[in-house]
Amino acid sequence: MNIPSKYDAAEVEGKWYKYWLENGYFHSKPDERKPYTIVIPPPNVTGVLHMGHMLNNTIQDVLIRRARLQGFNACWVPGTDHASIATEAKVVGRLKERGLKKSDLTRDEFLDQAWDWTREHGGIILEQLKKLGASCDWDRTKFTMDDDMSASVIRVFVDLFNKGLIYRGYRMVNWDPEAKTTLSDEEVIHEERQGLLYYLAYPVEGSDEKVVIATTRPETILGDTAICINPADERYTHLKGKKVIVPVSGRVIPIIEDEYVDMEFGTGCLKVTPAHDVNDKNLGDKHGLEVIDIFNEDASLNHHGLHYEGKDRFAVRKEIARELEEKGFLVKTETHVNKVGTSERTKAVIEPRLSDQWFLKMETLARPAIEAVLKDEEIKLFPKKFENTYRHWMENIRDWNISRQLWWGQQVPAYYYGEGKEDFVVAENQEQALELARKKTGNTSLDVSGLRQDPDVLDTWFSSWLWPISVFGGILDPENEEIKYYYPTNDLVTGPDILFFWVARMIMSGYEYRNEKPFTNVYLTGLVRDSQRRKMSKSLGNSPDALKLISDYGADGVRVGLLLSSAAGNDLLFDEGLCQQGKGFANKIWNAFRLVSGWEVSETEPAPKVAEVAVRWYRSKLGQTLHEIEDHFAKYRISDALMATYKLIWDDFCSWFLEMVKPAYGHPISKTTFEQVIALFEENLKILHPFMPFLTEDIWQHIEKRDSDKALVVSDWPSIPEVDHGLLEGFAMVTEVISGIRTIRKDKNIAFKEVLELHATHNGSAFNGNLDEVVKKLGNITALHYNIEKVEGSVSFRVGADEYFVPVAGSVDVESEMEKLKEELSYAEGFLKSVRGKLSNERFVNNAPEKVVAIEKQKEADTLAKILTIKESLSNLGK
RNA sequence: GGGCUCUUAGCUCAGCUGGUUCAGAGCACCUGCCUUACAAGCAGGGGGUCACUGGUUCGAAUCCAGUAGGGCCCA
C-alpha cells in the first residue's frame, strides 16, 4: 500500500464528494426497502452558512448516513425558502443603491429583480453544505417559490378558506414601519429599553382641575379618545361623567371607567389610544370609543399629528415633550424600563396598528397537534423538556396572521370585485375567481378587469409549514407514489427558536392534509454561542467563517468539533479548539492506518497468543461499545455516540489493541492477525463514517481497490459482535497491572526498554486466556511468577486482593514504600469502617434489598483481604 | 407579572425509576518521555461539602419544600 505521510483533507474531501455524487449514492427513489427520510429545515435562499446551519446539518448528515449504512432507503431532501421580508429588504436595498425606490417599479418589475437576486445568491448556502459533506439528494432540491410549491400554498389557502378557517379581519397587528409590513407575534422580539414615563396633566372641562396620567409615549396623545379610571378608585370618583381636554390638540374626550385600569401603576389614570395599543383597542371596542390613527405606514405622523405631520414618531416624542413642558402640561418625568417589541428582521420598533389582514383560525388545527405530541406521543421531542414549552404555546394559541404587505411571495388569492368588505372571492386563479364572482354577484357581464387581486403576499411560514408534504408533491397530488412512500418522514433536526414558527405548524398541516404526523422525532439542537456565551451574530462579528474553518481543520474536523460539545438542547459554546481536537482525531486515525499499512505480512508466521487474545478482546469491546452507541443514538445523544466512538478508536483500538498486535521491530505480522486487524479497522471506519465521512471513505478505499458499489458510504453498519464479559473484566484488571508496572518504571526511572520480572500472589488464574501474554508484552516483562508470598528487594502494588512485586536493581527506598503502604492502609481502613457502619445498622440490613446488602458484604470481605496483604507487606518491609 | 428550566472538577457537560456505573467524561492543568504510526504524540498525576437551607428515608447529586442566582418562552 502506498500511503501519503500526511492526510490532506482538502484534496480528499473534494475527491470523494465528487465520487459520491457521480455514483448517485445520495439519490433516493422509492423501492422495496424501508424509507428513512429527513427534510432539511430550508435555510433562507439568500443566506450564507453560519454555525447554526453547520451544527444542524452535520447532525442531519450523521443520522442520514447512519440510516444509509443500516440499509434504509435514505432520503434527505434539501432546499431553501424565499424569506419574504429578508429578501425583499435586500432587493429594496439594492434598488436604493441605484437610486430607485420600490414604488418606482411595477409589481412584476420588482419580482423580476427579486428573482435575479435569488438566482445570484440562492444556492450559495447549498454549495456550502456540500463542502461540509452533506449527503442530500440534490436532485430533489426544492425552493418554496417553485411553481409546484407555490401552487400547493395557494391550493391550501383556498381550501382552508372554503373550510371557514381563513378569514379577513380588521385587527391590531404588529407593524414593522421599516419593512412596511405586519409581522406575526412570533417575529416580534421584546426587548427591555430604558425610557421615560411622562406625567401629563389634562385639564378637566369646565373646571380648573387637572387630571394627571402617565405615559411612555407622549406623541400618542394626539390619538387619545378617552381617559380611563378604575371605578373603585376613590381619588377620581368626583370625575365620573366629566370630560377632559387633550393638550396640544384641544380635543375634548370623555372620562370612562373600567376595572382594567391598574390603580397602582403611574397615577392610576390611563389615557386611551385605541389605534395604537392593543389593550386600548379592547377598551375602545368595549366603550364604543372613536379610533384616531395618527401614523402613516412608515410611522411618521399623518394629518392627525397637526403641526407634527410628516415627522417621525421618535422625533415627535422629543418635540412634543418640549411643547408640553413649555405649555405647562408636563408635570414630571421618571426613568422607566419597559419592554419594547422589535422586528426580528429589521430591528425596527414595532408599532401596533389596525389594519385588514388575513388570519388562520388555529384552534381546531392545534387539537390533533397537541394530542400527537403530548398525549399519544406519536411525535417525540428531544430533549423532552421542550414539551412543556410546546404545551404552553399550543394551549394558548392565537390565530395566525398570514398576510404580509410585501410583494415577494405567494400573492393572496383573494379577488375583489367591489368596495364592500365582503365583496371578494377566493380562488386558485383568475378564471375560477371570475366564475365565482359572477355567481356570487349574479352579474354575468363581470369580466377580469373588474377583479382586483389582494396585493398582499402570504407569510413565508405559510409555505414552509407544508414543507414535508409539498416537497413530495403531496398537496397537489395526494395519492402520488412519492408522498405515500416517504411520508411521514422520520427525523426533523432544527433549533428550538422555531418550535412554534415551524415545527408546531408542520404538525398541524400534517394532520390536516395527510391525516398523519409529518415526522416521528424532533431533535432540537442548542444555539451556537461564542465562548463568552454570546449569541453568534453578524453585528458582533463573533461568528467564524464557516468555509475558513473547513479549510483550516477539514470538514471532518469541524464536524467532530461541533458535535463533541453539543448535548441535545444545550447551547453549544463554540471554540475553535474543538475543531482542532477533531482534526487531531483525524490525524490519529490516519496514523493508525499508516502503522497498519506499513506492516510486512508473513504467510508462514503463526499468530502469536497475545494477538489472538487481543483480537478476541477488541471484538468484545467493539460489541460493548456498539451497544452503548445504539443506545445513544436511540436517545438522540449524538455527542455521546461520538465520544463513545472516539474513545473506542483512540483508547481501545490505538492505545491498547494496536500495541498488543504490533509486531516487534523488523518482524512481520502473521497473515491471520493482519487480516483480523484490517477487518476490525473496517468495522471502526463504518461506525465512524457518519461523523467523519471523508477520512473514513479515503482510508476505506486505501485499504483495497473497491468497485463503485462497495464504497464505504453504501456499505453496511456493523452487526454487533458477541460480548465476552469475563474477558472484558479480566482485561480491565490486566490494564491495572500494566498501569502498576508503568508507575513503578516511572518512579524508579526504569526505561521501558529495560526488561523486568513480575511476581504475583495469585496462581495465574487471574490471567486467564493468555492475558498473561498481554502483561508480558505491554509491561515488557520477561517472566511471570505465581504463588509468591513476598520478594526481597522489590516494589509492590495491589490490584484487587492480589499483590504484585517487581524486583528492582539497587536499593529500595523502604521509607517511601512504607509511606505509600500506610496511605493505602488508612484509606482501606476508612473504607472498611464506612461499610461496617452500614452493615451494623439494623435498619439497613432489614430494609435494603438483599442484593445491596450482599454487595456491601462483598466489599467488606474484599477490603479485609486487602488490609491483610498491606499489613503483611508492611511487616516484611519493617524487618 | 405568568410559565418552564437550570446550578456537579478551572471550562463544557454526563449522571435514567434513590443503593459499587456514585462522585464521572472530554478539554484545560501538572510531571516525565523526541519509544522507529502519530510531540496534533505517549505514559503518569492532581483536582468537586454535587448552589444554599430544611424535610422524607436505613440510605439523597438523585425525591419534596423553601432561599439565592442564571437561562428560555409568553404577556
UniProtKB/TrEMBL annotation:
Reactions the enzyme catalyzes: tRNA(Val) + L-valine + ATP = L-valyl-tRNA(Val) + AMP + diphosphate
Valyl-tRNA synthetase tRNA-binding arm domain ranges (all copies): 813-878
EC number(s) reported in the record: 6.1.1.9
Domain Aminoacyl-tRNA synthetase class Ia: 15-572
Top EC class of this enzyme: ligase
Pfam families to which the protein is assigned, alphabetical: Anticodon_1, tRNA-synt_1, Val_tRNA-synt_C
Gene Ontology CC entries for this record: cytosol
Domain Methionyl/Valyl/Leucyl/Isoleucyl-tRNA synthetase anticodon-binding: 616-757
Motif ('HIGH' region): 43-53
Binding, ATP: 538
Keywords assigned: Aminoacyl-tRNA synthetase, ATP-binding, Coiled coil, Cytoplasm, Ligase, Nucleotide-binding, Protein biosynthesis
GO biological process, one term: valyl-tRNA aminoacylation
GO molecular function per UniProt: aminoacyl-tRNA deacylase activity; ATP binding; valine-tRNA ligase activity
Position of sequence motif 'KMSKS' region: 535-539
Compartments, as annotated in UniProt: Cytoplasm
Free-text function comment from the UniProt entry: Catalyzes the attachment of valine to tRNA(Val). As ValRS can inadvertently accommodate and process structurally similar amino acids such as threonine, to avoid such errors, it has a 'posttransfer' editing activity that hydrolyzes mischarged Thr-tRNA(Val) in a tRNA-dependent manner.
Complexes and interactors: Monomer.
Domains (record comment): The C-terminal coiled-coil domain is crucial for aminoacylation activity. ValRS has two distinct active sites: one for aminoacylation and one for editing. The misactivated threonine is translocated from the active site to the editing site.
Similarity field: Belongs to the class-I aminoacyl-tRNA synthetase family. ValS type 1 subfamily.
Protein name per Swiss-Prot or TrEMBL: Valine--tRNA ligase
UniProt source species: Sinomicrobium oceani
Gene that this sequence comes from: valS
